[in-house]
Amino acid sequence: MEKIRRNKKYICIFLFPALAVYLCFEVIPVIMSIYFSFHEWPGIQSVPLEFVGLDNFVNLFQNPVFLKSLQNVLIYAAISVVLQVPIGFALGFLVHKFMHFKRFFKASFFIPMILSVSAVSLLWNFIYFPTDKGILNTILIHLGLENMTQQWLVNPDTALIALIAVSTWTSVGYYMIICLAGLTAVPESIIEAGEIDGATGLKKIGYLYIPMLWDSVKMSVIMVITGVLKIFDTVYILTPSGGTDNSTIVPALLMYNEAYRYGHYGTGSAIATVIFVLSAVVSVASLKLMNRRESVEY
Amino acid sequence: MKKRIISVLLAGVMVCSMAGCSGSSGSGSDSGESSDSSESSGKVKITFMSRDSGDTPIAKVYEDQIARFMEENPDIEVQNDSIYEEAAYNNKLKVAISTGETPNIFYYPAIAGLKEWAESGVLLDLTDALEADPEWRDSFLDGALDTYRLDDYGVEGIYALPNELNVDAIFYNKALFEQAGITETPETMDELYDAIDKLNAAGITPFGVGGKDTWVMGHIFNNILAKRIGGDGIRALGTGEKSWTDSDVLECLQITKDLKDEKNAFMEGFEGIDVNTQMSQFLSGEVAMISHSSPIIPEMFASDSQILDDISFFPFPYFTDKEEYKDTRVVYTSGWMLSGTMSEEEEEATLKLVKYMTTPEAIQERMDAAMRVAPYKNITAPEDAPQIFKDMVAYTDTITDSIGEYFDYDTCSTLVDVSRNGILNMMLGTSAEDTAAAIQADIDANRPQ
């Protein structure tokens, strides 16, 4: 066994399938997408590519709809990080403390994650239904808050936050599981020592658990950011046109429209490139920011 | 090769990200294995791609007709690649075209939008095939073939065969009209406004509108446009001879906006309701009218609605100050396009199939099974069809001046989304002037020169 592990030929053979899939479906499309972003092409095989230099990018950054989509997705990412990770980890701490029905709560909070986006979106469509038959509006009316009823997905002031709520509801279970997985590796002796030193309640979470789970927190934040920056499905199903006054338009939806609906493959590729660069920059920046706080070795 | 790789990979990425939202898609008898076997068996293989797939009656008829065609023509194999779900269909078609694998027969909802495909040889010019077979050519309704004549856009020839007609009308609930004291269906817009007032006074919502699906308001606007600037005006708008900021077009936007703001014609919150909810509201008797087209008839009769006998339709009313456009009717034509990159034997087999599918018997069979109005002569509604469908077929026969959707005549690919989103935003508060300016600005930026 040890001999096989040291043999580079075997290592290459076993790595090859995963590497091939990664290259074909991740690396090559990214490279080709960047290549295409410097060209214009109407999506017809017999029509040659036309090199347009940086024109697609210049046009993009002069397009108010694209700028609005960037603004929306950055707001979406910022709020999602603030909501999804803390709520997910709070649920993780809570479920970790439960003596009974632990499995039930774990499964309950995780179920939205395994539902298809279309099913989740349909469910939330009923919740956000714009008339007094909508679940949310009905609740508000019964609470005497009739003046707060809204066309949640139509009103530009509420549409984006309504979508963020859907994503948050869907994703918190996932971050709860990450938290629980991290918690199982935290040595009980350290917690007990902390308790003897006076760490209880929130202090215990802030000074003991969070430092020891810092790597999990970092990973979760990066996953939220990269997930949100390429978000498409929830937005497409709940607000297919990108919302009133482009209130919910995001770059991935714009990319889809440009490339597949309007036949502007160069512009679509340029948007894909911007999403890629933005994901990389925001992820690295977040990681650097979070790396200022060292994770605790145990 | 590079283009092929990127198209397939881009599609792969999109398909993965959309996997959850296209659950209703279904395909016909898509079989890669049969492709290999057909090549080895020396058969000519052709692909057929439509939006009719799954368990619908029309899909079943298509499958039966294709199966019969293959039985009668053992040297031809037809692969049915039909997909019901619109986004999945469009994605598959566009990837096929970008990789040079254009289906032999396919459907695409455009007229002027076909210009680029026609110019670059993606589509077959059908003029010669139609001239070579006058009997076949003359089986189409007079003028129907001209729908896909692209001469006005600088490409000579006919690039699709009209296959179905979607005739726009206002469908209404007779019982609710009676309840509101409306004794006759409105013929003019003033009469329609009166009917709206009476329905509102009786506490009945006049129009069901699924505004979230932006095409619904788009269709209402298109009818108003047809009745105020006529077919020639709409075509001129498409070719750029007219502008969206012209006073008559602006007026049409304002009339559309006033239906909500001044006439209170729609239910509160309609902007966030989808078309399925609109349909269920109409079929349960909650709203008195919907603006829709003829394919809604089979949909209604496939439902378990208890009020089907109360439903009828009337043509979109005209404006008394624009009587010259009284008979202009909005009719959306859907057509079949043929690949322009076929080999000679493929072209021969494809024309054979398309002629087989457009024989009077084949068209009648599809109409009988699925209540689709077709642009062919000597087709009659089946005896056992609901009265409303018979009325629709009879009404279609009376149409002499028809026009499609305004964006069908424009080569600007973004117009459909920008205008429909703009109209919905206008219903939510944007002024007609700002809406028109925004649409025109988009056209100026994106319409190919």
TrEMBL record, chain A:
<feature type="transmembrane region" description="Helical">
    <location>
        <begin position="73"/>
        <end position="95"/>
    </location>
</feature>
<dbReference type="InterPro" id="IPR000515">
    <property type="entry name" value="MetI-like"/>
</dbReference>
<feature type="transmembrane region" description="Helical">
    <location>
        <begin position="262"/>
        <end position="285"/>
    </location>
</feature>
<dbReference type="InterPro" id="IPR035906">
    <property type="entry name" value="MetI-like_sf"/>
</dbReference>
<keyword id="KW-0472">Membrane</keyword>
<comment type="similarity">
    <text>Belongs to the binding-protein-dependent transport system permease family.</text>
</comment>
<feature type="transmembrane region" description="Helical">
    <location>
        <begin position="107"/>
        <end position="127"/>
    </location>
</feature>
<protein>
    <submittedName>
        <fullName>Sugar ABC transporter permease</fullName>
    </submittedName>
</protein>
<feature type="transmembrane region" description="Helical">
    <location>
        <begin position="159"/>
        <end position="186"/>
    </location>
</feature>
<dbReference type="Pfam" id="PF00528">
    <property type="entry name" value="BPD_transp_1"/>
</dbReference>
<keyword id="KW-1003">Cell membrane</keyword>
<keyword id="KW-1133">Transmembrane helix</keyword>
<feature type="transmembrane region" description="Helical">
    <location>
        <begin position="12"/>
        <end position="38"/>
    </location>
</feature>
<dbReference type="InterPro" id="IPR051393">
    <property type="entry name" value="ABC_transporter_permease"/>
</dbReference>
<feature type="transmembrane region" description="Helical">
    <location>
        <begin position="207"/>
        <end position="232"/>
    </location>
</feature>
<keyword id="KW-0813">Transport</keyword>
<feature type="domain" description="ABC transmembrane type-1">
    <location>
        <begin position="70"/>
        <end position="286"/>
    </location>
</feature>
<keyword id="KW-0812">Transmembrane</keyword>
UniProtKB/TrEMBL annotation, chain B:
<keyword id="KW-0732">Signal</keyword>
<feature type="compositionally biased region" description="Low complexity">
    <location>
        <begin position="24"/>
        <end position="41"/>
    </location>
</feature>
<protein>
    <submittedName>
        <fullName>Extracellular solute-binding protein</fullName>
    </submittedName>
</protein>
<dbReference type="InterPro" id="IPR050490">
    <property type="entry name" value="Bact_solute-bd_prot1"/>
</dbReference>
<dbReference type="InterPro" id="IPR006059">
    <property type="entry name" value="SBP"/>
</dbReference>
<feature type="signal peptide">
    <location>
        <begin position="1"/>
        <end position="19"/>
    </location>
</feature>
<feature type="region of interest" description="Disordered">
    <location>
        <begin position="24"/>
        <end position="43"/>
    </location>
</feature>
<dbReference type="Pfam" id="PF01547">
    <property type="entry name" value="SBP_bac_1"/>
</dbReference>
